[in-house]
Amino acid sequence: MKKKLKSSLLGITFILLTAITGFSQCKEVVWPENKAKAEESVALYGDAMKQQNWRAAVPPFQWMLKNAPNWNTKLYIDGTDIYNKLASVEKDPKKKQVLVDSLMMLYDMRVTNCGDEVNVLNRKAIYAAVYNGQNKDKTAEVLALYDKVYAISGNNVLDNNLLSYMQVIQLNAVLLKNLSDDQILERYDKLSGVVDVKIKKAQAENKQADVERLKATKSSVDDILIKLVKVDCDFVKKNLEPKFKQNPSDIALAKKIFQFMTTGGCIEDPLWLQAAEVLHKDSPDYGLAINMAKIYAKNGNMEKAEALATEAVTIASTPEQKENSNILVGDLLAQKGSKSAAREAYRKAGKIGFEKIGDLYMGSFKDCAKGSSLAEDRLVYIAAYDMYAKAGDQSKMNQARGQFPSVTELFELNWKEGDTKSISCWVGETVVLRTRGKE
User: What is the pLDDT of residues 273-295, one digit of tens each?
Assistant: First the structure.
Protein backbone atom coordinates (compact mmCIF):
# COMPACT_ATOMS: atom_id res chain seq x y z
CA MET A 1 0.00 0.00 0.00
CA LYS A 2 2.87 2.37 0.84
CA LYS A 3 4.38 1.76 -2.58
CA LYS A 4 1.06 2.57 -4.22
CA LEU A 5 0.82 5.86 -2.34
CA LYS A 6 4.38 6.82 -3.19
CA SER A 7 3.82 5.95 -6.83
CA SER A 8 0.66 8.08 -6.72
CA LEU A 9 2.69 11.17 -5.89
CA LEU A 10 5.66 10.28 -8.05
CA GLY A 11 3.35 9.57 -10.96
CA ILE A 12 1.77 13.01 -10.75
CA THR A 13 5.18 14.63 -10.31
CA PHE A 14 6.41 12.98 -13.48
CA ILE A 15 3.29 13.99 -15.34
CA LEU A 16 3.62 17.58 -14.14
CA LEU A 17 7.14 17.73 -15.57
CA THR A 18 6.49 15.97 -18.89
CA ALA A 19 2.87 16.56 -19.85
CA ILE A 20 2.87 20.33 -20.37
CA THR A 21 1.15 20.71 -23.70
CA GLY A 22 -0.08 23.69 -25.67
CA PHE A 23 -2.10 26.13 -23.53
CA SER A 24 -5.81 25.39 -23.59
CA GLN A 25 -8.84 26.39 -21.59
CA CYS A 26 -9.93 22.73 -21.71
CA LYS A 27 -13.53 23.72 -22.41
CA GLU A 28 -13.89 21.39 -25.36
CA VAL A 29 -13.23 17.65 -25.19
CA VAL A 30 -9.87 16.86 -26.80
CA TRP A 31 -9.18 13.12 -27.12
CA PRO A 32 -5.61 11.79 -27.38
CA GLU A 33 -4.41 9.59 -30.24
CA ASN A 34 -5.42 6.45 -28.34
CA LYS A 35 -9.05 7.49 -28.00
CA ALA A 36 -10.28 4.01 -27.17
CA LYS A 37 -7.94 3.69 -24.20
CA ALA A 38 -8.90 7.19 -23.05
CA GLU A 39 -12.63 6.44 -23.22
CA GLU A 40 -12.04 3.24 -21.27
CA SER A 41 -10.01 5.08 -18.61
CA VAL A 42 -12.68 7.77 -18.19
CA ALA A 43 -15.34 5.10 -17.84
CA LEU A 44 -13.27 3.11 -15.33
CA TYR A 45 -12.44 5.98 -13.00
CA GLY A 46 -15.97 7.35 -13.39
CA ASP A 47 -17.50 4.03 -12.31
CA ALA A 48 -15.08 3.82 -9.38
CA MET A 49 -16.09 7.33 -8.26
CA LYS A 50 -19.79 6.42 -8.41
CA GLN A 51 -19.05 3.46 -6.16
CA GLN A 52 -16.91 5.73 -3.93
CA ASN A 53 -14.00 3.39 -4.53
CA TRP A 54 -11.57 6.27 -4.71
CA ARG A 55 -8.42 4.16 -4.66
CA ALA A 56 -9.57 2.15 -7.65
CA ALA A 57 -10.12 5.38 -9.55
CA VAL A 58 -6.46 6.42 -9.28
CA PRO A 59 -4.79 4.22 -12.00
CA PRO A 60 -7.20 5.04 -14.87
CA PHE A 61 -7.29 8.67 -13.78
CA GLN A 62 -3.49 8.88 -13.83
CA TRP A 63 -3.43 7.38 -17.32
CA MET A 64 -5.67 10.20 -18.51
CA LEU A 65 -3.59 12.78 -16.66
CA LYS A 66 -0.42 11.57 -18.37
CA ASN A 67 -1.80 10.96 -21.85
CA ALA A 68 -4.60 13.55 -22.15
CA PRO A 69 -3.81 16.41 -19.73
CA ASN A 70 -5.90 18.88 -21.74
CA TRP A 71 -8.81 16.47 -22.36
CA ASN A 72 -11.29 18.63 -20.47
CA THR A 73 -11.57 20.65 -17.26
CA LYS A 74 -13.63 17.78 -15.90
CA LEU A 75 -10.45 15.71 -15.62
CA TYR A 76 -9.06 18.05 -12.96
CA ILE A 77 -12.36 18.49 -11.18
CA ASP A 78 -12.67 14.71 -10.91
CA GLY A 79 -9.02 14.32 -9.94
CA THR A 80 -9.18 16.80 -7.09
CA ASP A 81 -12.35 15.11 -5.89
CA ILE A 82 -10.61 11.71 -5.90
CA TYR A 83 -7.51 12.87 -4.03
CA ASN A 84 -9.48 15.00 -1.59
CA LYS A 85 -11.65 12.02 -0.67
CA LEU A 86 -8.59 9.81 -0.24
CA ALA A 87 -6.77 12.40 1.87
CA SER A 88 -9.77 13.11 4.09
CA VAL A 89 -10.05 9.51 5.28
CA GLU A 90 -6.35 8.59 5.45
CA LYS A 91 -5.22 8.16 9.06
CA ASP A 92 -1.48 7.69 8.58
CA PRO A 93 0.13 11.17 8.60
CA LYS A 94 2.83 10.35 6.06
CA LYS A 95 0.44 8.66 3.65
CA LYS A 96 -2.02 11.53 4.09
CA GLN A 97 0.65 14.08 3.21
CA VAL A 98 1.50 12.17 0.03
CA LEU A 99 -2.13 12.41 -1.05
CA VAL A 100 -2.36 16.08 -0.09
CA ASP A 101 0.78 16.89 -2.08
CA SER A 102 -0.77 15.11 -5.05
CA LEU A 103 -3.94 17.14 -4.63
CA MET A 104 -1.96 20.38 -4.61
CA MET A 105 -0.08 19.33 -7.76
CA LEU A 106 -3.35 18.68 -9.57
CA TYR A 107 -4.37 22.30 -9.09
CA ASP A 108 -1.02 23.42 -10.48
CA MET A 109 -1.39 21.12 -13.48
CA ARG A 110 -4.85 22.47 -14.15
CA VAL A 111 -3.47 26.00 -14.31
CA THR A 112 -0.60 24.88 -16.55
CA ASN A 113 -2.79 22.99 -19.01
CA CYS A 114 -6.13 24.76 -18.78
CA GLY A 115 -5.50 28.26 -17.43
CA ASP A 116 -8.23 29.89 -15.30
CA GLU A 117 -5.59 30.72 -12.68
CA VAL A 118 -7.69 32.97 -10.43
CA ASN A 119 -10.48 30.45 -10.02
CA VAL A 120 -8.19 27.43 -9.66
CA LEU A 121 -5.78 28.94 -7.15
CA ASN A 122 -8.69 30.22 -5.06
CA ARG A 123 -9.89 26.63 -4.81
CA LYS A 124 -6.42 25.31 -4.18
CA ALA A 125 -6.03 27.75 -1.29
CA ILE A 126 -9.13 26.39 0.43
CA TYR A 127 -7.71 22.87 0.59
CA ALA A 128 -4.18 24.06 1.27
CA ALA A 129 -5.44 25.82 4.41
CA VAL A 130 -7.42 22.76 5.51
CA TYR A 131 -4.68 20.20 4.99
CA ASN A 132 -1.41 22.14 5.26
CA GLY A 133 -2.19 25.18 7.38
CA GLN A 134 -1.10 23.58 10.66
CA ASN A 135 1.74 21.58 9.13
CA LYS A 136 4.78 23.62 10.19
CA ASP A 137 6.67 22.38 7.15
CA LYS A 138 3.96 23.78 4.88
CA THR A 139 2.49 26.73 6.82
CA ALA A 140 4.67 29.36 5.14
CA GLU A 141 3.95 27.82 1.76
CA VAL A 142 0.20 28.13 2.38
CA LEU A 143 0.63 31.80 3.30
CA ALA A 144 2.59 32.41 0.11
CA LEU A 145 -0.24 30.80 -1.86
CA TYR A 146 -2.81 33.05 -0.18
CA ASP A 147 -0.67 36.10 -0.85
CA LYS A 148 -0.64 35.18 -4.52
CA VAL A 149 -4.38 34.52 -4.57
CA TYR A 150 -5.05 37.99 -3.19
CA ALA A 151 -2.55 39.54 -5.61
CA ILE A 152 -4.20 38.05 -8.72
CA SER A 153 -7.84 38.04 -7.61
CA GLY A 154 -8.41 41.67 -6.76
CA ASN A 155 -11.79 41.82 -5.02
CA ASN A 156 -12.90 38.51 -6.54
CA VAL A 157 -11.41 36.34 -3.83
CA LEU A 158 -13.78 33.50 -2.94
CA ASP A 159 -15.71 34.12 0.26
CA ASN A 160 -14.26 30.88 1.67
CA ASN A 161 -10.82 32.47 1.46
CA LEU A 162 -11.62 35.53 3.57
CA LEU A 163 -11.51 34.36 7.17
CA SER A 164 -9.18 31.48 6.26
CA TYR A 165 -6.54 33.99 5.04
CA MET A 166 -6.50 35.62 8.47
CA GLN A 167 -6.36 32.19 10.10
CA VAL A 168 -3.34 31.27 7.94
CA ILE A 169 -1.69 34.56 8.91
CA GLN A 170 -2.33 33.67 12.55
CA LEU A 171 -0.85 30.19 12.10
CA ASN A 172 2.32 31.65 10.59
CA ALA A 173 2.65 34.22 13.35
CA VAL A 174 2.05 31.70 16.15
CA LEU A 175 3.68 28.54 14.80
CA LEU A 176 6.59 30.01 12.87
CA LYS A 177 6.86 33.53 14.33
CA ASN A 178 7.83 34.65 10.84
CA LEU A 179 5.72 37.83 10.58
CA SER A 180 6.32 41.31 11.97
CA ASP A 181 3.43 43.52 13.10
CA ASP A 182 3.76 45.55 9.90
CA GLN A 183 3.59 42.41 7.75
CA ILE A 184 0.47 41.27 9.59
CA LEU A 185 -1.16 44.69 9.27
CA GLU A 186 -0.32 44.92 5.57
CA ARG A 187 -2.12 41.65 4.88
CA TYR A 188 -4.97 42.60 7.20
CA ASP A 189 -5.50 45.84 5.27
CA LYS A 190 -5.68 43.96 1.98
CA LEU A 191 -8.14 41.42 3.40
CA SER A 192 -10.31 44.08 5.04
CA GLY A 193 -10.45 46.03 1.78
CA VAL A 194 -11.79 42.98 -0.08
CA VAL A 195 -14.41 42.31 2.60
CA ASP A 196 -15.52 45.96 2.53
CA VAL A 197 -16.00 45.86 -1.24
CA LYS A 198 -18.02 42.66 -0.94
CA ILE A 199 -20.21 44.19 1.78
CA LYS A 200 -20.84 47.29 -0.32
CA LYS A 201 -21.76 45.13 -3.33
CA ALA A 202 -24.16 43.01 -1.26
CA GLN A 203 -25.78 46.18 0.10
CA ALA A 204 -26.21 47.57 -3.41
CA GLU A 205 -27.86 44.31 -4.47
CA ASN A 206 -30.07 44.34 -1.35
CA LYS A 207 -28.73 40.97 -0.20
CA GLN A 208 -29.07 41.52 3.52
CA ALA A 209 -28.20 37.94 4.48
CA ASP A 210 -24.89 38.28 2.62
CA VAL A 211 -24.24 41.63 4.29
CA GLU A 212 -24.71 40.14 7.75
CA ARG A 213 -22.58 37.10 6.92
CA LEU A 214 -19.74 39.24 5.58
CA LYS A 215 -19.91 41.57 8.58
CA ALA A 216 -19.65 38.54 10.85
CA THR A 217 -16.59 37.44 8.88
CA LYS A 218 -15.08 40.87 9.25
CA SER A 219 -15.68 40.78 13.00
CA SER A 220 -13.91 37.41 13.23
CA VAL A 221 -10.99 38.76 11.21
CA ASP A 222 -10.72 41.73 13.58
CA ASP A 223 -10.81 39.41 16.59
CA ILE A 224 -7.82 37.48 15.25
CA LEU A 225 -5.89 40.68 14.53
CA ILE A 226 -6.32 41.89 18.09
CA LYS A 227 -4.79 38.64 19.32
CA LEU A 228 -1.76 39.07 17.07
CA VAL A 229 -1.02 42.79 17.18
CA LYS A 230 -1.61 45.22 20.01
CA VAL A 231 -3.77 47.71 18.19
CA ASP A 232 -5.52 49.34 21.13
CA CYS A 233 -6.63 52.93 21.30
CA ASP A 234 -3.21 54.14 22.42
CA PHE A 235 -1.70 52.52 19.34
CA VAL A 236 -4.21 54.34 17.13
CA LYS A 237 -3.70 57.70 18.79
CA LYS A 238 0.07 57.43 18.59
CA ASN A 239 0.56 55.87 15.16
CA LEU A 240 -2.53 56.63 13.08
CA GLU A 241 -4.05 59.89 14.30
CA PRO A 242 -1.12 62.05 13.06
CA LYS A 243 -1.42 60.52 9.58
CA PHE A 244 -5.19 61.03 9.61
CA LYS A 245 -4.83 64.69 10.54
CA GLN A 246 -2.56 65.15 7.53
CA ASN A 247 -5.07 63.45 5.21
CA PRO A 248 -8.54 63.36 6.82
CA SER A 249 -10.16 62.12 3.60
CA ASP A 250 -8.10 58.91 3.49
CA ILE A 251 -10.84 56.28 3.50
CA ALA A 252 -8.51 53.32 3.98
CA LEU A 253 -6.91 54.97 7.01
CA ALA A 254 -10.32 55.97 8.37
CA LYS A 255 -11.46 52.34 8.13
CA LYS A 256 -8.43 51.17 10.06
CA ILE A 257 -8.93 53.80 12.78
CA PHE A 258 -12.63 53.00 13.00
CA GLN A 259 -12.08 49.24 13.26
CA PHE A 260 -9.28 49.43 15.82
CA MET A 261 -11.02 51.98 18.03
CA THR A 262 -14.31 50.10 17.87
CA THR A 263 -12.59 46.90 18.92
CA GLY A 264 -10.61 48.80 21.53
CA GLY A 265 -13.80 50.18 23.08
CA CYS A 266 -13.07 53.89 22.63
CA ILE A 267 -15.87 54.90 20.28
CA GLU A 268 -16.57 58.04 22.29
CA ASP A 269 -13.18 59.46 21.40
CA PRO A 270 -13.53 62.40 18.94
CA LEU A 271 -11.15 60.61 16.56
CA TRP A 272 -13.60 57.71 16.25
CA LEU A 273 -16.36 60.11 15.26
CA GLN A 274 -14.12 61.81 12.70
CA ALA A 275 -13.22 58.49 11.10
CA ALA A 276 -16.85 57.37 11.21
CA GLU A 277 -17.94 60.56 9.44
CA VAL A 278 -15.50 59.85 6.59
CA LEU A 279 -16.74 56.27 6.21
CA HIS A 280 -20.41 57.21 6.42
CA LYS A 281 -19.98 59.92 3.81
CA ASP A 282 -18.31 57.43 1.47
CA SER A 283 -20.88 54.68 2.07
CA PRO A 284 -23.93 55.56 4.20
CA ASP A 285 -24.55 52.77 6.68
CA TYR A 286 -27.57 52.27 8.95
CA GLY A 287 -25.72 50.91 11.96
CA LEU A 288 -23.04 53.56 11.74
CA ALA A 289 -25.62 56.35 11.53
CA ILE A 290 -27.41 55.02 14.62
CA ASN A 291 -24.23 54.72 16.70
CA MET A 292 -22.95 58.12 15.65
CA ALA A 293 -26.32 59.69 16.50
CA LYS A 294 -26.21 58.21 20.00
CA ILE A 295 -22.68 59.44 20.63
CA TYR A 296 -23.41 62.93 19.33
CA ALA A 297 -26.47 63.05 21.57
CA LYS A 298 -24.38 61.98 24.57
CA ASN A 299 -21.92 64.75 23.73
CA GLY A 300 -24.76 67.28 23.61
CA ASN A 301 -24.80 67.83 19.85
CA MET A 302 -28.52 67.18 19.45
CA GLU A 303 -28.77 68.77 16.00
CA LYS A 304 -26.18 66.39 14.56
CA ALA A 305 -27.68 63.44 16.42
CA GLU A 306 -31.18 64.15 15.09
CA ALA A 307 -29.91 64.54 11.52
CA LEU A 308 -28.16 61.16 11.63
CA ALA A 309 -31.10 59.40 13.25
CA THR A 310 -33.43 60.84 10.61
CA GLU A 311 -31.05 59.67 7.90
CA ALA A 312 -31.03 56.20 9.46
CA VAL A 313 -34.80 56.03 8.90
CA THR A 314 -34.29 56.57 5.17
CA ILE A 315 -31.50 53.98 4.75
CA ALA A 316 -33.00 51.29 6.99
CA SER A 317 -33.25 48.03 5.05
CA THR A 318 -35.68 46.12 7.29
CA PRO A 319 -38.94 47.01 9.08
CA GLU A 320 -37.20 46.45 12.42
CA GLN A 321 -34.41 48.86 11.54
CA LYS A 322 -36.95 51.47 10.43
CA GLU A 323 -38.89 51.09 13.69
CA ASN A 324 -35.75 51.37 15.82
CA SER A 325 -34.52 54.45 13.99
CA ASN A 326 -37.91 56.14 14.34
CA ILE A 327 -37.78 55.40 18.07
CA LEU A 328 -34.35 57.03 18.26
CA VAL A 329 -35.62 60.10 16.39
CA GLY A 330 -38.52 60.29 18.85
CA ASP A 331 -36.23 59.92 21.84
CA LEU A 332 -33.98 62.73 20.63
CA LEU A 333 -36.93 65.03 19.97
CA ALA A 334 -38.43 64.23 23.37
CA GLN A 335 -35.08 64.88 25.03
CA LYS A 336 -35.02 68.43 23.70
CA GLY A 337 -38.68 68.98 24.64
CA SER A 338 -40.32 68.65 21.19
CA LYS A 339 -42.99 66.26 22.44
CA SER A 340 -45.48 66.66 19.58
CA ALA A 341 -42.77 65.96 17.00
CA ALA A 342 -41.51 63.04 19.10
CA ARG A 343 -45.01 61.57 19.11
CA GLU A 344 -45.14 61.71 15.32
CA ALA A 345 -41.87 59.79 15.10
CA TYR A 346 -43.07 57.22 17.63
CA ARG A 347 -46.29 56.67 15.67
CA LYS A 348 -44.18 55.42 12.77
CA ALA A 349 -42.54 52.79 14.95
CA GLY A 350 -45.38 50.32 15.45
CA LYS A 351 -46.19 48.66 18.76
CA ILE A 352 -43.13 49.85 20.63
CA GLY A 353 -43.96 53.39 19.51
CA PHE A 354 -47.27 53.31 21.39
CA GLU A 355 -45.41 52.49 24.58
CA LYS A 356 -43.14 55.48 24.01
CA ILE A 357 -46.14 57.78 23.43
CA GLY A 358 -47.60 56.45 26.67
CA ASP A 359 -44.39 57.42 28.41
CA LEU A 360 -44.67 60.93 26.96
CA TYR A 361 -48.21 61.28 28.27
CA MET A 362 -47.28 59.88 31.69
CA GLY A 363 -44.59 62.53 31.95
CA SER A 364 -46.83 65.39 30.85
CA PHE A 365 -48.85 65.95 34.01
CA LYS A 366 -46.94 69.10 34.93
CA ASP A 367 -47.01 70.36 31.34
CA CYS A 368 -50.76 70.02 31.07
CA ALA A 369 -51.99 70.63 34.64
CA LYS A 370 -54.14 73.75 35.04
CA GLY A 371 -54.33 73.37 38.81
CA SER A 372 -58.06 74.01 39.03
CA SER A 373 -59.27 70.39 38.97
CA LEU A 374 -57.43 67.15 39.66
CA ALA A 375 -59.95 65.24 37.56
CA GLU A 376 -59.13 67.31 34.48
CA ASP A 377 -55.38 67.32 35.16
CA ARG A 378 -55.37 63.52 35.47
CA LEU A 379 -56.82 62.98 31.98
CA VAL A 380 -53.27 62.59 30.64
CA TYR A 381 -52.99 59.33 32.59
CA ILE A 382 -56.07 57.94 30.86
CA ALA A 383 -54.48 58.89 27.53
CA ALA A 384 -51.26 57.16 28.62
CA TYR A 385 -53.23 54.05 29.63
CA ASP A 386 -54.82 53.87 26.17
CA MET A 387 -51.39 53.97 24.52
CA TYR A 388 -49.99 51.30 26.80
CA ALA A 389 -53.02 49.16 25.98
CA LYS A 390 -52.20 49.46 22.27
CA ALA A 391 -48.64 48.41 23.07
CA GLY A 392 -49.88 45.47 25.17
CA ASP A 393 -47.85 46.57 28.22
CA GLN A 394 -49.93 45.41 31.20
CA SER A 395 -47.45 46.63 33.80
CA LYS A 396 -47.48 50.20 32.55
CA MET A 397 -51.26 50.05 32.08
CA ASN A 398 -51.55 49.30 35.79
CA GLN A 399 -49.24 52.20 36.64
CA ALA A 400 -51.33 54.59 34.56
CA ARG A 401 -54.60 53.28 36.02
CA GLY A 402 -53.30 54.04 39.48
CA GLN A 403 -53.20 57.75 38.50
CA PHE A 404 -56.73 57.94 37.06
CA PRO A 405 -59.17 60.49 38.60
CA SER A 406 -61.04 59.30 41.68
CA VAL A 407 -64.81 58.98 41.88
CA THR A 408 -64.88 62.03 44.15
CA GLU A 409 -62.80 64.09 41.73
CA LEU A 410 -65.25 63.32 38.90
CA PHE A 411 -68.21 64.11 41.16
CA GLU A 412 -66.77 67.53 41.94
CA LEU A 413 -67.03 68.43 38.24
CA ASN A 414 -70.30 66.62 37.76
CA TRP A 415 -68.55 64.26 35.34
CA LYS A 416 -69.56 60.65 34.87
CA GLU A 417 -67.60 57.52 33.93
CA GLY A 418 -68.12 56.72 30.25
CA ASP A 419 -68.30 60.37 29.19
CA THR A 420 -65.69 61.61 26.71
CA LYS A 421 -63.41 64.54 27.39
CA SER A 422 -60.74 66.27 25.34
CA ILE A 423 -57.32 67.14 26.72
CA SER A 424 -56.64 70.77 25.95
CA CYS A 425 -52.82 70.81 26.17
CA TRP A 426 -50.38 69.50 23.51
CA VAL A 427 -51.58 65.92 24.13
CA GLY A 428 -54.87 66.79 22.41
CA GLU A 429 -56.41 63.33 22.87
CA THR A 430 -60.07 62.58 23.52
CA VAL A 431 -60.48 59.99 26.28
CA VAL A 432 -63.31 58.05 27.91
CA LEU A 433 -63.63 58.90 31.62
CA ARG A 434 -62.61 56.15 34.03
CA THR A 435 -61.67 56.14 37.69
CA ARG A 436 -58.86 54.43 39.56
CA GLY A 437 -61.28 52.37 41.67
CA LYS A 438 -62.50 52.32 45.21
CA GLU A 439 -61.48 55.12 47.56
Answer: 999 999 999 989 999 999 999 99
Q: Which residues of 81-92 are buried (b: 16+ CB within 10 A; e: fewer)?
A: bbbbbbbeebee
Supply the pTM of this predicted model: 0.60
Provide φ and ψ at 392, rounded to 5°: 75, 25
Q: Residue 381 falls within a domain, yes or no?
A: yes
Domain that includes residue 416, residue range: 353-432
Tally the domains of the chain. 1
To 10 degrees, the CA torsion angle through 304, 309, 314, 317? 140
Stated as kind and residue range, the H or E segment containing 398 is helix 394-401
Give the per-residue pLDDT at 438.
52
| Residue 298, number of CB atoms within 10 A of its CB | 10
Given a cut of 60, whether residue 20 has pLDDT beyond it is no
Q: Quick check: is 401 in a domain?
A: yes
- Asked if residue 295 is part of any domain, the answer here is no
Q: C-alpha 326: how far from its chain's center? A: 24
Yes or no: say if 94 and 70 are a contact pair by the CB < 8 Å rule. Answer: no
Q: In a 10 Å sphere around its CB, with 0-12 CB exposed, 13-18 middle and 19+ buried, how is residue 111 labelled?
A: middle
Within-domain flag for 405: yes
